[in-house]
Amino acid sequence: MTPRARHPVAHLANLDLNLLVALRELLRERNVTRAAARIGVSQPAASAALSRLRRHFDDELLIRARSGYTLSPLAMQLADQVETVCAAAERLFATGRAFDPSTSRREFTLLMADYTIAVLGRHLSTTIGAQAPGVDLHLRLVREAFALDFAETITLIDGMVSPPVEKFELPSVRSVELFTDRWVCIADAANPDVDGGITIERLAELPWVAPFQPDRGNPTAAPMSRQLALFGIRPEIRVRVESYQAVPYLVAGTDRVALLQERLATQVAGLLGLRVLPCPGDPEPIVERLWWHADRDGDPAHRWLRETVIAAAARL
User: Fold this and answer.
1) CA–CA separation, 46 and 54 (whole Å)
2) Which terminus, N or C, of the chain has the lesser number of Cβ atoms within 10 Å?
3) What is the pLDDT of residues 64-86, one digit of tens each?
4) CATH superfamily of domain region 95-180+287-314
5) Range with lowest mean pLDDT among 12-16, 113-117, 157-161, 275-279
6) Is pTM, for the whole model, over 0.90?
7) If you ran DSSP here, which 8-state letter would residue 222 be given?
8) Domain spanning 183-284 has what CATH number?
9) CATH code for 14-81?
């Protein structure tokens, strides 16, 4: 007779959910003594928790090295997951409580591109620091994989800042516009190929730096790639990079060009000796929105977070 499968609720009830916090701090600190201090338990208690976690996962998790401990391959996979699960649990049990930002110790998790952090980060950080000195902010960099699993990802975080994408338009998802930007071309100030301006035909001939291009010939959902597709060009991409902020540093001092958001381009143009040129053609405007799951609507803490992000964007 085939054994009956264990009911998932019963399985969850048999788990010691305190181990989630222990796992998070052990993977963060990579040190049993420091993890114990973070959790507020004795060092032997933290060691016992690590032993239980090792038995549960059948993995060492923390591997002794010359300078301390390193994470096992499985532990590296678990690190992001446990952060997301703990943040979701904290939100769940905080929902419905009155929220006082001046005394709260809550942590909020937001997904943003590094471009958005460069533009919005200082205003957001100073606003939260002034109003809520005990609140922790966990900023995770947006990756294309998040967009592929957006319906699930948005339920596990507090919000994401991103331009609109069709798959984000779900009945369970809310959004509000934060700020707008536009695409510009950047080139080294000494690059003679852009003297007198630039045309789409010229862009097609020049070497490029491009963010978030997986490899030659493969399409991507990255906003800059969409603009190239709208222009009808497939330029020669010499440098691919998983970052917007890195792009101007890889253009400076070379004959390469790139498309970049104007707010970011103007921040670094003087420092790096770059020329910022109007983008030819008719590029789409950049509209950055804050996205969150409708389940957060009734949470006073989340309402404060949304208002804080909107207020920070209004200062741009």
Assistant:
1) 12
2) N
3) 887 778 889 998 888 878 887 87
4) Periplasmic binding protein-like II (3.40.190.10)
5) 12-16
6) no
7) -
8) 3.40.190.10
9) 1.10.10.10
